[in-house]
Automatic annotation (TrEMBL):
InterPro entries linked to this entry: ARM-like, ARM-type_fold, CSI1/2/3
SUPFAM superfamilies from the UniProt entry: ARM repeat (SSF48371)
Name listed for the protein in its UniProt record: Uncharacterized protein
């Protein structure tokens, strides 16, 4: 997992996409999802939400949903990342993106709105 996270930080565009997809698959396993190392993936995955490529956004959303859905502490960590994931999600929801991508963006919004920090942000309205 550490190598995949390193690729998210430093890899090429296709490398980041492959790493995000692999992490999404790994996050199906509870012991991996709950590991300390998984927290290191939050910032680079959140950064991928700002890419122009829907496939990169889709991979990042899938991984973030799996990582944060049943873990309020990790969802709260998204409030601390550089940039604002809610702005990225708002852009996806208001774009001409595919329905699948918008559905995943809405699902991550649902997870994030479980945290009062996100509900209090001006962009939330």
């Amino acid at each position: 997992m550490n190598q995949l996270i390193a690729v998210l930080h430093l890899g090429s565009r296709s490398g980041r996409l492959s790493a995000a997809r692999a992490l999404s698959e790994l996050f199906d396993a509870e012991n991996i999802r709950d590991s300390e190392a998984s927290m290191q993936a939050i910032q680079p995955l959140a950064d991928m939400l700002n890419t122009a490529s829907e496939s990169e956004q889709q991979a990042a959303l899938s991984a973030l949903i799996k990582l944060t859905s049943e873990n309020n502490a990790k969802a709260a960590m998204l409030a601390e990342v550089k940039g604002n994931p809610l702005e990225s999600l708002c852009k996806i929801l208001s774009s001409s993106a595919t329905l699948e991508l918008k559905s995943d963006a809405a699902e991550l919004c649902y997870v994030l709105f479980g945290n009062s920090k996100f509900r209090e942000m001006p962009i939330a309205s």
